[in-house]
Amino acid sequence: MSVNGQPAEGEVEGRTLLVDFLRNSLELTGTHVGCDTSQCGACVVHVNGAAVKACTMFALEAEGAEVTTIEGIAAPDGTLSAVQQAFQEHHGLQCGFCTPGMVMSATALLKDNPRPTEAEIREYLQGNICRCTGYHNIVKAVMAASGQDVGAIAAE
């Protein structure tokens, strides 16, 4: 497979999850394991351009695939992506545990829907759990990353 634009390989047992291969074999620890039940979304990565919970996919299923993790979202010189920058500017993170999955999900959303409504953002991010922020600033960050006015977002 290719991970973040670089060839990656390793021997794994058939039951090895993609998240475990990324974290343990490739030492890409930005992809978090939060629940082990595919409920929290902390492990979201992109596989062939689609957002996937890496705890629901075996590493062997990604053979030959293009995988992007949170480490591959920023530019090679370290410049943050628009989504990462917006999360920083709009305080879309607190403890940071859910942040990689949120950023990966938001990036996938904006690829498919460059100007989502607030309701569309909230619906898309339902598969990601954040226990700290209350989601308000996360939604603001996604709106900002899409180039939309964040002043119209209602406080909850």
From TrEMBL:
Signal peptide (UniProt feature, chain positions): none
The entry's keywords: 2Fe-2S, Iron, Iron-sulfur, Metal-binding, Oxidoreductase
UniProt-listed Gene3D superfamilies: 3.10.20.30, [2Fe-2S]-binding domain (1.10.150.120)
Domain (2Fe-2S ferredoxin-type) ranges: 1-73
PROSITE patterns tied to this protein: 2FE2S_FER_2 (PS51085)
Molecular function, one GO term: 2 iron, 2 sulfur cluster binding
CDD domains given in the database record: fer2
Residues in coiled coil: none
Annotated InterPro entries: 2Fe-2S-bd, 2Fe-2S-bd_dom_sf, 2Fe-2S_ferredoxin-like_sf, 2Fe-2S_ferredoxin-type, Beta-grasp_dom_sf, Diverse_Oxidoreductases
Keyword Metal-binding: yes
Organism of this sequence: Oceanicola granulosus (strain ATCC BAA-861 / DSM 15982 / KCTC 12143 / HTCC2516)
Protein name, per record: Carbon-monoxide dehydrogenase, small subunit
